[in-house]
Amino acid sequence: MAYPMQLGFQDATSPIMEELLHFHDHTLMIVFLISSLVLYIISLMLTTKLTHTSTMNAQEVETVWTILPAIILILIALPSLRILYMMDEINNPSLTVKTMGHQWYWSYEYTDYEDLSFDSYMIPTSELKPGELRLLEVDNRVVLPMEMTIRMLISSEDVLHSWAVPSLGLKTDAIPGRLNQTTLMSTRPGLYYGQCSEICGLNHSFMPIVLELVPLNYFEKWSASML
User: What is the pTM (predicted TM-score) of this model?
Assistant: First the structure.
């Protein structure tokens, strides 16, 4: 999860988030190089009296500054499209969980089980135990197996919500009357926090999401205890 004064992204926990971080660094380096070049040219224009009148109508210069931006855009667009298709791809999920947004809590249903569903409310500040995080802890965590492809079906029963977990690279809108889907896979166990990322009313900031990713044998024991 994020820590105080953090400037960058959270540590990646899923393959998709790792790809997003690499793409961010790739694009940021291109932006940095372009900005440095523009700053260098501006500084030269302000500090030198030399003029090159022969370049005012040069076809070569116009060709270069037309083709070069196009090449840069292609270098950005191709990896972006690759990641976009990877995020939409769903291959034989091992588990399906349906998530419904409400004002102002989340409800979860494990559709592969006959009767495994619960609501997840934020724990009030006055009831927090030592070490728990304010505005992020819930009474019922979403327990999921790690290193397995999991499909999340996301919708809403009232207004627009958004189910987001930054460290997994997830952010999917919950829209009334529409069923959106996304996939997640964690490469390591742990607790992963998120929040509703769509302004949905008075208590929008009190809709945390907590995923508890555990090994498969622990998940089986948990699911058996919940049935």
Answer: 0.84
